[in-house]
Amino acid sequence: MKNYFxxxxxxxxxxxxxxxxxxxxxxxLPFSGNPxxxxxxxxxxxxxxxxxxAQVKSLIQYPESARDNGIQGELPVRVLIDKKGRIVSxxxxxxxxxxxxxxxxxxxxxxxxxxxxxxxQAMNAWVTIWFEFKLTD
Length: 137
Description:
Layout: H1 2-16, H2 35-42, E1 45-46, E2 49-50, H3 53-59, H4 64-68, E3 73-81, E4 87-92, H5 98-104, E5 113-114, E6 116-118, E7 121-123, E8 125-133
Antiparallel strand pairs: 1-6, 2-5, 3-4, 3-8, 6-7
């Protein structure tokens, strides 16, 4: 029963995104809580890491309407990774930038990840991926 509780707690923390978020380059963001609180529970946990993020990002075209109007920005996308490293669900973390969402949508499910694990067992987990849309001269 104790292991079940640890797995539930670890999964809740990972799902909440408090422990795992990725920047555009795939680097984990720092955890802001007290690490001593989680040390024993999460000592056997790994975070999903993207395998083909650069490849998928190269497929995403800058939206013409955004380019024509000089609009740039970042689009954070929260994705649920299953035990096999595939995205099963996603949600955009911003309501604006519809054209950026439309550019990412056709390609988001092409992303593949190393699955999250807890004590060697694969588990589902949420991570945040950032897509940057920046105009160049």
